[in-house]
Write the structure tokens for this entry.
Amino acid sequence: MEKKHYFALEDLFLFSIGEQKDREKLCAGLKETVDDWKKMMGGRSGLESYITPYLDRIMVNDKDNARSLYFFLSPIFLYIHVLYELSRKEWRNAVSWSGIFCERIVKNLLKEIDRKDSTDIFQKVERSSFENKTGKLKSELETRGFKLANELYSLMGIIYSLRDTRGPHDVPPPERIRAQTCASQCLPVYIDYLEALMFLGSNLKDDYHNFVSFFSNLTETKVSLTFGEEEKRVTINHLLKNILYREGFFRQGKKHGEVMEKLRTMGYNFGDPQVSKALSSLSKGKDAILTKKGKRKNYIYEERYPPEEFFKNII
């Protein structure tokens, strides 16, 4: 599956730099990739609504929007695999994918510098060590006046230092905390990466918040569940508010039984009274996020307003 995702994104990049591609096939491949990601993340995503406008523009041969979409999505592809391995408690693989995520960040930024300034920096350092590549990137960004260059360099250094020098597939099994550290550090790296691209002239401002919020939601949901659930700290209110509501589960009204079934598919077995009490509390008062409609024992719970509005101040 990962090869299929990789090639879908590579086709997007090649299209953005002028290579002829079947646009319908390209867009279908990207839709399928995002759908696969949604399944890997447990059936909750919301990413589709963000990419649809880009696909529409690609269909009319807009290569600039293709490049912007590639910048947004290609690191997410690798981060999805980080979180997928966390969910399987494969700490070694999660650390490896985190390092590969950093490699993609460096590659994208160096290639964009080359495109913008007609240089061949990436080609010159492509076969050198990750440390040399990041050092070169830091130098090039600092020369151009990007103030977050050292921060980006340091964050990626933290992630990459948790890998073994023998390579991405020879990482010794790390402690759980190493995998957690890697996954948590990827969000600030992604933010600095987008900031660097915008500094270099990429037109990402309009959808910057959408993709950062999506990345942030993934981080908070998957990392907290992976490392919080084992310590018995996940509450029913947290699941309903910060996961189901946040990811659009209540966009269409849900009955109590549908909520119970969803929680069971996620691996939780809260009792009816606990769930009923939590749903009622989230439907009352000035801070309510749900509305409760219908008659007793047959209530329908629906989002009061879009979760994007409620959580807009996260970032």
